[in-house]
Structure formats: C-alpha cells, structure tokens
Write a structure and sequence with these properties.
The longest helix has 21 residues. By secondary structure, this protein is of the alpha/beta class. The radius of gyration is 16 Å and the shape is globular. α1 links the parallel β1 and β2. The chain has a five-stranded parallel beta sheet with strand order 2-1-3-4-5, sandwiched between helices. 37% of the residues lie in helices and 14% in strands. Bound molecules: ligand FNR. Ligand FNR binds next to α1. The site of ligand FNR has 14 residues, from α1.
C-alpha cells in the first residue's frame, strides 16, 4: 500500500466563514486515500521579527516543527490587493527562518486561489509561487487552480454545490498526489 502523505494545508484567510477554508475542506474530502490533509493554523503567529530568532515565541517554534514533519504543503488562499494576504506571508517568513533552517525546503507544494472575483486570485497565486521558488518548494505547475466566482459555489454550511468545480478539484488532487510521489525527497 502507498505511504499515507501528511499534507500541511495553509489557508491564507483568517475569516470565520472563509471561502478558501471551504475550498480547503473540500480538497480534504476529495483527496485520494493516500493523502491526509491537515489544516495548520496561522492566525495565532506573532508577526515575524528577526530579533525573535534568538528566543523565538512558542507559536513560531510549534509552526516550524509542524511544517518540518509534513510530507507536502498545500496553499489555499485569497488574494489581497493582487498579492498574498499578510497572514500568509507572515507564515512563509516564519517557516523560512532561522537562516539555513527553513522548514519549507523540498516539500512538494501546490497552490489554489479562490475569490468572488473573475480572475480567481491569479495575482496572489503567482506572487506566492515567486516566494516558493526561493523557498525551494517545488510547486505543481499544472493544473493551475484559480477559482473565480467562488462565493457562488458553496451553500450556507460550506458544502460545495457545483459539480464542475468538484470534478476539477478532484482532478487537481489526483495530479497533486502524483506530484508528491514524484518530488518527495
Ligand atoms: C480583498 N479581496 C480581493 N479579491 C480579489 O480578487 N483580488 C484582490 O486583490 C482583493 N483584495 C482584497 C483586499 C483585502 C484587504 C480584502 C479584505 C479583500 C476580496 C476577497 O477576495 C474576498 O474578501 C474573499 O472572500 C476573501 O477570501 P475568504 O476570506 O472568503 O477566503
């Protein structure tokens, strides 16, 4: 039997009724059995300050340790002002330090962006990919996932109601499973 992959899921929105959290929960349901998706919270992380590397806040250490043991990292995020939300950038920066000890290195990654807008968070998706290149996270190129009109895709309980989107997300997770198996170090 295939090894079960521990996939750390980072949701870029801190909002209680976040569409992106709905997307992340849906991806967890649709993932192949060989993947276990776990949302790793980022809202409790103090803002990164390099001075803190001497004596890091417990929340930074716990986050770094959790990412370090994951097999892969999946980012599901909204776009804020055509870029990544500050909370997500903060988590990326915290995980990347202290210098030379990045928790992200070599984890096979994937990026999903969702927005009520028509271009589905394209700007955030690609700004995030720029950071992932530097962080040595090999991010799956295809399929790309820009989920536009995302406020219309879920019911009041956060359940996906659109069959086309379900099929697309299922295919995305199947491709990501192959990506992880191919790129695991
Ligand atoms: C947004 N929103 C937004 N949407 C978008 O498509 N492109 C953008 O650049 C922005 N910029 C932006 C900035 C800020 C500060 C906020 C609060 C919002 C709208 C955003 O897509 C919308 O609020 C989503 O619902 C956010 O995702 P969650 O929180 O529902 O997952």
């Amino acid at each position: 039997m295939d090894k079960i992959r521990d996939v750390a899921v980072i949701v870029g929105s801190l909002r209680k009724d976040s569409i992106n959290r709905h997307v992340a929960n849906t991806l967890a349901e649709l993932a192949p059995a060989a993947m276990k998706l776990n949302i790793i919270e980022i809202g409790q992380l103090p803002i990164y300050n390099q001075d803190g590397d001497e004596n890091p806040p417990a929340a930074w250490t716990a986050f770094r340790d959790r990412i370090r043991v994951a097999d892969a990292v999946l980012f599901v995020t909204p776009e804020h002002n055509r870029s990544v939300p500050a909370a997500l950038k903060n988590a990326l920066d915290i995980g990347s330090r202290p210098y030379g000890k990045s928790a992200w290195s070599g984890k096979p990654g994937a990026v999903v962006t969702a927005s009520p807008g028509g271009i589905g968070g394209f700007g955030a998706n690609h700004h995030l990919r720029q950071s992932l290149v530097f962080l040595d996270v090999p991010a799956m190129a295809q399929p790309e996932a820009y989920i536009g009109g995302a406020d219309k895709l879920f019911d009041a309980n956060g359940k996906l109601t659109n069959d086309g989107t379900r099929k697309f997300l299922q295919g995305f997770m199947q491709a990501y499973a192959v990506w992880i198996a191919t790129n695991a170090r």
